[in-house]
Amino acid sequence: MDKPYDSKSDIWSAGCVIYELATLKPPFRAKDMDGLYKKVVKGNYNKLPSHYSVDLNNIIRMMLQVKPQNRPSCGIFWHNLR
To answer: Which of 2, 17, 18, 42 is most buried, judged by most C-beta within 10 A?
Structure first.
């Protein structure tokens, strides 16, 4: 979206990495760059396969929110790990 990167960008990137670790595929896939752009800005990706927990699906869903202000912060994850 041509906006500056910040910690919310890092949350989104980490969500992409976690998704790819689970599925061995990137969350956003398309035949061309225009199609890829459209999927990313709309947040369109397939859910994880059913053998993964609802919690993991929810974490990825929160991390891949299109609007950065709707993504969790690092503090939320740190608090939940304690």
So the answer is: 18
Question: What are the two backbone dihedrals, phi and then psi, of residue 22, each rounded to the nearest 5 degrees?
Answer: -75, -40
* Secondary-structure breakdown of the chain: helix, strand, coil percentages, each rounded to the nearest 5: 60, 0, 40
Give which of 76, 23, 32 is closest to 50, Cα–Cα. 23
pLDDT digits (tens, 9 = 90+) for 19-51: 999 999 999 999 999 999 999 999 999 999 999
Q: How far apart are CA 18 and CA 24, in angstroms?
A: 10
Those residues whose C-beta lies under 8 Å from the C-beta of residue 31, and which sit 6 or more positions away, are none
